[in-house]
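[09:14] KT: can someone run the structure on this one? pasting the chain below
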Amino acid sequence: MFTERARHTFQLTGRAPHPALVRAYARIKQAAARTNARLGLLPPRWATAIDRAAALVAAGRVPDAAAIDVLQAGAGTPAHMNVNEVVANLANERLGGRRGRYVPIHPNSHVNLGQSSNDVTPTAIRLMALELLGPLDAELAALVRALRRQAARERDVVKPGRTHLQDAVPITWGQVLGGWAQAVDDARRALGAARAELSVIGLGGTAVGTGLTAHPRFRALVTRELSRLVEVRLRPAPTPVSTTWSLRPLLACSAALRGAAVDLAKICVDLRLLASGPDTGLAELRLPEVEPGSSIMPGKVNPSVPEAVQMACFQVAADDHAVALAAAAGELELNVMTPLVADNLAGALTLLTRAVRLLRVRCVEGMAVDRRRARRLVAGSLIEATALSPYLGYDVTAEVVKEARRRGRPLRDVVLGHRLLGERELGRVLSPAALTGPRATDVALRRRVQRAPAYRAFRASLAEE
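[09:31] RB: done, structure tokens below
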């Protein structure tokens, strides 16, 4: 038997193909049996036996259907034949035959009629990815909602912005959290675009995409039947020749996963930085305590969930690199590296789904902004200076900042001390709304400020220096 020989030959990882991939192979066998019966190429009784046997495999009720190592001979032929042989054996038993005899149904001649590993395996990987994208999409959408709820709750809390890890202009916690939510939602949309490409399949192209041994109507009919079985609108590839060697749609899906992982990893870095401390770090954010943080320091609590999720994101990026190398390894009319693509794509989809859920449930939904700390950091810093620049000018504002830092005084006190702005005017210029969003400069106020004797005297003193 093909399966038994392959099982003993390929023992690389000790892992079987992902259940979703085996399920996809089985659905293809069901669709092919129904199509071949409709075309008069299989007796209805045999087609029904194959259909029902494949349905058992798809339902996960036949463990032997995934007896091959995930890394195997090129083009996924061993995994494909594993399914063909299991389905043939089950179908023959249903018809009164015995396992291993392949009478009356043969795994190649009947279960695989009108098909080849070269068109079935790329199709199966697409179906696997489409199935696994569903849970990931749901988790990403849930994370977006959780972040937006937090953003709405903290929309008016002003905090220091930071660029180059140095103090920058103010920003609200609502804007920060809203930005994270938008990034996750954008990643979700990119995965949605990849989903559309995955729905185009080359099933019926057989060995090199020309359709040799397949009925002329097989491609269109089997695609329609498979769409009904997997409840996804699939379309036949315009040129099946390309689907045997080009894995670009799978690469696009992998790249979209990497993009999502990169932004999620950045969010995890931010969570760790903003929660750092609690006494000597930024300490603007309190994360849920999920475990003791140290084996030696009592009471220490680490940002364990963001750490774990960040590692998961790095693994997704590594999976994408493997997919890219495999996709680039196609030659002539075939890419034989599909087992590697299937393994890494399944791993990335599964891992990222779990990571997103972990981040939401055990971190985002329970985290809290330290509003008092945010107010103290803004009040005790010089980050308001940029908002003064349109009224005082760059040079005067810079000098005021230097003086405030030199004297250890709040920026507002220095501005008021030099009578550059009145208290009411200063309050308006440095209001939270003015500090954290676009606002037109009050030209009349700027003219009034820069014509005032106090401003002119201060500017003159700068010129003398």
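[09:33] KT: thanks! The chain has a mean pLDDT of 94.
[09:34] RB: yep, looked fine to me
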